[in-house]
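A favour, since you know our structure tokens better than I do. Could you add the entry underneath, on a fresh line?
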Amino acid sequence: MGESCGNGPCAAADNGDSHVQYDWCAERRLVTDDLYIVNRAKLEALIDKIFGGARLDIEVKDRFGQPVVPREWRLAPLFVINEAVERIRYGTIAGYVYDPKSATLTVAGDFGR
């Protein structure tokens, strides 16, 4: 999904349109995990659902000076991400979402309380 570009985000255009996906370069990665026999699209949709409340509302300029609004950038503490990964791994994530106000995973019905 991105090229190695040193420090900071890397961009990869999606089929030549204005949608750009950003991925932090390997030098910035804190944690990696190997997944086997996983539907990548379903996993991405699940992660988007869980961390939807953490989406950054930001506009950046690409290398050509064009404004881009990255839809995949989220901001959450590493311990919450680790908890979500464990819950996904053991099948106990159903009904949980990230609550940015409390910086915790919470049951969806309790969100914002």
